[in-house]
Amino acid sequence: MYGWIWRHLPGNVYVRILISTVLVVGVVFLLFQYVFPWAEPMLPFNDVTVDGAAEPLGTPRAGGAA
Amino acid sequence: MALRALVRTLSETCITIGLVIVLFVVYLLYWTGLRAAHASDDEIARLHKQWAQGPTGSAPAHEGTAGGTRDSGHDGGTTGGADELAGDGGAGDADSTAPGHRAGESFAVMYIPRFGGDWSKPVLENTATATLRRGLGHYTGTADPGDKGNFAVAGHRRTYGDPFKDFPRLRPGDPVVVNDGDTWYTYTITARPYRTLPGDTGVLKAVPEPVDEAATPFRRSGRYLTLTTCDPEWGSSHRLIAWGRLDATRPTAEGKPDALTREGR
Predict the structure, then answer these.
(1) pLDDT tens digit string along B181-239?
(2) What is the pLDDT of residues B66-95, one digit of tens each?
């Protein structure tokens, strides 16, 4: 996979290193900005409330939190 | 040759998954903390700016009630004025559905010297996931700070700046100070944190009614504070609850209350 990407990058070694770095930074950014914030509420340490308290006024509850 | 490609792809996939997991841990332990610290500072700065510009926007809703009966009486007597209007309805949660705050917006700052002299967090309206990422969340429908009833606040134990990390260290007598721009409210913790199940919503009532009746902190209506967080630290099987009662009030203009000047710095 990584070999395949490397072979398909244009330019000489230095250009490829540069493009690879940009790709890695881009992937990390996407993970931190979108993927992790989406996945994080599914973990248990988000559930800090006792349920039902805010529901009479229709406050959204932490997604399916137990 | 095909086998070699298969093994290589499998290895690379495993390494990639491992790296993503490591990154996720970095995100949870450091990045959420950085983001939360930034967001909290922003909220507090915004509040101070808003308060400096004049009366708080939500004031009319609770100005009249906040003055009702001062539990302390020994300071804060100068606010006067509103006292006549308020009366003392006796109904514990008569004003507990204060409509004064917009969802997700901060309206007060909380100080808990037990958690550190410089520990201060904004209190935002509602307890949605996005709200709790920026600070503490005020259970919608519970009383406002200083009002009759129960001012209930939830906060993260871990991740997002670990605001309630030291929650189990709270002890009877610890001050919890809340400033809403007009007044410093000094609550005093009345018991060691109470451990309960996630569905124990009675702890939020105007006079808290925990499932475990032995833990009932108060018998009569009054001006109370409830803090909630998760337990164990990284889990969600239980909740920790701390209760306090309003001890003193002091107009913001008169400066920080004793509880902060004594233990802070």
Answers:
(1) 889 999 999 999 999 988 888 999 899 999 888 888 898 899 999 999 988 888 888 89
(2) 333 444 434 433 333 333 333 333 333 334
CA dihedral B113, B115, B120, B125 (to 10 degrees): -110
Q: Which residues of A touch B36 (CB under 8 A)?
A: none
How far does B107 lie from chain A, in Å, by closest CA?
A: 17
Residue A32 lies in domain? 1-39
Domain count, chain A: 1
Q: What is the ipTM of this complex?
A: 0.74
Q: In chain A, what residues touch B18 (CB-CB under 8 Å)?
A: none
CATH number at residue B7: 2.40.260.10
C-alpha pair distances (Å), B232 with each of B4, B198, B235, B262 = 46, 12, 5, 31
Nearest-Cα distance to chain B for A42, in Å, is 11
> Is residue A19 situated within a structural domain?
yes
